[in-house]
Amino acid sequence: MKQQLSLQAPAKINLYLRVLNQRSDGFHNLSSLMHMVGLYDRLTFEAQETDLTLAISGNPLPSDASNLVLKAATLLQKEMIDEGYPRKGAHITLHKTIPVSAGLAGGSSDAAATLVGLNRLWSLFWPKQKLARLGAVLGSDVPFFFDGPAAWISGRGEKVTPVSDNIQGWVVLVHPEIPVSTAAVFRAYASRAGLTKQGSPLNIKPEKLRPSETEILAHPLNDLESVTLTRFPLLNAVKQTLRDLGGVFVLMSGSGPTLFALFGHQEEAEKTARQMPKVMRGTALKAWAVPLLWTSPFEEIF
Ligand code: C5P
Q1: Cα–Cα distance measured from residue 24 to residue 33, given in angstroms and rounded to the nearest whole number
Q2: What average pLDDT does the chain have?
Q3: Ligand 1 centre from 230 Cα, in Å?
Q4: Does the beta carbon of 12 lie inside 6 Å of ligand 1?
Q5: For residues 63 and 183, which has the higher predicted lDDT (pLDDT)?
Q6: Cβ(140) to ligand 1 under 6 A?
Q7: How does 19-53 read in b/e, with b if 16+ C-beta sit within 10 Å?
Q8: Burial 95-129 (b: 16+ CB within 10 A, else e)
Q9: Residue whose CA is at the smallest distance from ligand 1 atom 12
Q10: Which of 79, 119, 134, 234 has its CA 20 to 30 A from that of 265?
């Protein structure tokens, strides 16, 4: 029988996000509290001789070399060969549920799941720190997924400090179907805040920008939110509707456009997710009620 392995790749939300300054490489230093949530893509890895192939189901997405899953698999395979291991291949299937370009880091989670899955399928047993270093090359959000379910991230995303007393509860995710470019949102924020590669107006150590859970919950803050909300005013109406339906903490995730609200109880969250498309009739959006995760689905694979 062929060796096979399946993994769930969770989405993330940002419960707090500050942009500190612009770096000489053009990326921005951040201080953000990220949390995994129970909305998943599903990946299956099947051993094959030497080739890397990918099949996609669910939400449409290109399955060519531009796909982060294939990029992650190719990177791991190259590293393995460079270190003197024999070349191995895999057929990967990706069932896509997490919306793309949504601020939920679905592509980064898929890339992390690929590194975790192939590390096991190919019996490399490399430590997660090594996989996280490889993942950082693929995208700023990838390293977080090796240290979930909750962590402070800094640098451009590569410095990850796990949080043990993670926040508990239910989340309603609302994805208005608007394509948002992360790069464009960062550019607009930098120009508005006067951040340049030369200067750094907010010259604060990221560790100093880690408020307590109580402070975070009292003052929802994502520096990128006003950029995306100004560009797409419809998002203000979505936020207001989430508040009207009982959401206690309503914020945009990452560069958006996904908005989320926290709820204490599952039933309340599920009811709100069902109501959202009805209340906002005429607006193309999807809504899910999902838990904040207590454990990372990748943890048991290591
Ligand atoms: O790393 P990733 O591919 O997710 O980043 C997408 C874009 O978002 C980058 O090309 C960059 O313009 C912007 N970005 C940034 N600073 C970060 C993360 C992302 O400027 N810390």
Answers
A1: 24
A2: 94
A3: 20
A4: no
A5: 183
A6: yes
A7: bbbbeeeeebbbbbbbbbbbbbbbbbbbeeeeebe
A8: bbbbbebbbbbbbbbbbbbbbbbbbbbbebebebe
A9: 183
A10: 234
